[in-house]
Amino acid sequence: MPDRVGGTARPLSSLPPLLAALWRLLCTHRSAFRQGRPFRRAQALLLGHFFSFARRTVTQALVALGLTDHDWSGFYSLFTDLCEDC
């Protein structure tokens, strides 16, 4: 179980309890991703869904994160790549 947030030196115990529990939950699913980049994208989408108040879509989550001027193909590929292993 991780005791630090990401690659930073901030200990998990310094986070609010709900955020720390969410972080631990996310990190337990790290093994479902072969690489770190898709895992970080999945984390970002989850947080984007928490902060989006409109429709619960991938696009709206990315807008909530302020990624309107970025390439979204990497985020959408998370869902297309899921079916390859099925």
Q: What features would you describe in this structure?
A:
This protein is mainly alpha-helical. The chain folds into 2 domains: 1-32, no CATH class; 36-85, no CATH class. It is built from 4 helices and no strands. The chain has helices spanning 17-28, 36-51, 58-64, 73-82. Helix 2 crosses helix 3. The longest helix is centred in the middle third of the chain and has 16 residues, at 36-51. The model has no long low-confidence stretch (mean pLDDT 81).
Topology:
Elements: H1 17-28, H2 36-51, H3 58-64, H4 73-82
Helix pairs in contact: 2-3
Nutshell version of this structure?
With 86 residues, the chain is mainly α.
Throw out a few tags for this protein.
single chain; 86 residues; mainly alpha; 2 domains; 4 helices; 0% strand; globular
What's the β-strand tally?
A: 0
**How many individual helices?**
4
Binned, the helix content reads: 40-55%
Q: Can you tell me the residue ranges where pLDDT is under 50 for at least 5 consecutive residues? A: none
Beta-strand percentage?
Answer: under 5%
Number of domains: 2
What's the Cα radius of gyration? 14 Å
| Average pLDDT over all residues | 81
Sequence of secondary-structure elements? HHHH
Gap between N and C termini, in Å? 28 Å
Shape: globular
**Main sheet, how many strands, which sense, barrel?**
none
Structural class, from helix and strand content?
A: mainly alpha
